[in-house]
Structures are given as structure tokens and as C-alpha cells.
């Protein structure tokens, strides 16, 4: 089965720092997003969940929720951006649908949501 890859991961600290320093930020109830144009044909996504949020199993759950909500809506977003999602403390009490709505709302605010025809 052939699968197109439209998204890669931000993994290195300098990549995160670059997006934090030069990207634009928007906040919602559960997440903060930083976006910077990368001039590539793919999006690169990074997820940051602080130790202040909770223990490792809680941080991993929030990370999985953010990653899955982005993955399911990946076709709705323009290509060529570095995106970093930072979880807020209120994400602890959120379910999948709250996180999904936050991701879509934030990327709509950054104007990288494709227009519907």
C-alpha cells in the first residue's frame, strides 16, 4: 500500500527554538501554536507537553491526542509550514474532540486551513 507523507516531525531542540523565536503564536483554551513558513513541500510538526502538566503517562496521552487530531485533519492544511503545539494545563481535562477543535481553530487563525469550495 502506498502512503503519501505530508508531515514530518520536528525533533531537534534548535528546530523548536527557531519556530518559537521567529514564528507567530496563537493560543486557545487547551493549546498554544507557533507557526513558521519552512519553504518545503511538507509540514513539520512538533508537540511540547511540559512536566508541569503531569506524570509521563498523562503527558504521553495528551501528545497522542494532539498528534491524532492533526493526522486526521492533515488534508485540510496548507503545506510548507513548521508547526509547534504546546499543551496548556487545561488540556488535562480535555477529551479528543476538545483537542481536535483546538487544533483546527488554531490553524484557522494562522490562515493555513485550506478554503472549502
Helix content: 25-40%
Strand order of the largest sheet: 1-4-5-3-2
Structural class label: alpha/beta
Q: What is the CA-CA span between the terminal residues?
A: 29 Å
Mean pLDDT across the residues is 92
Give the total of domains. Answer: 1
Poorly predicted regions: none
Give the overall shape: globular
Based on the structure, what is the oligomeric state of the protein chains?
single chain
Please give the radius of gyration in angstroms: 14 Å
Number of strands: 5
Main sheet characteristics: 5 strands, mixed
Q: Figure out the total of helices.
A: 3
CATH topology: Ribosomal Protein S5, domain 2
Question: What is the beta-strand fraction?
Answer: 15-25%
Order of helices and strands: EHEEEHEH
Per CATH, the architecture is: 2-Layer Sandwich
Task: State the name of the first-level CATH class.
Answer: Alpha Beta
How would you explain this protein's 3D organization?
The protein is 35% helix and 23% strand. By secondary structure, the protein is α/β, with parallel strands linked by helices. The protein has a single domain (7-109), classed as Ribosomal Protein S5, domain 2. The chain has a five-stranded mixed sheet with strand order 1-4-5-3-2, sandwiched between helices. Strand 2 (24-27) and strand 3 form a beta hairpin. The relative contact order is 0.24. The model has no long low-confidence stretch (mean pLDDT 92).
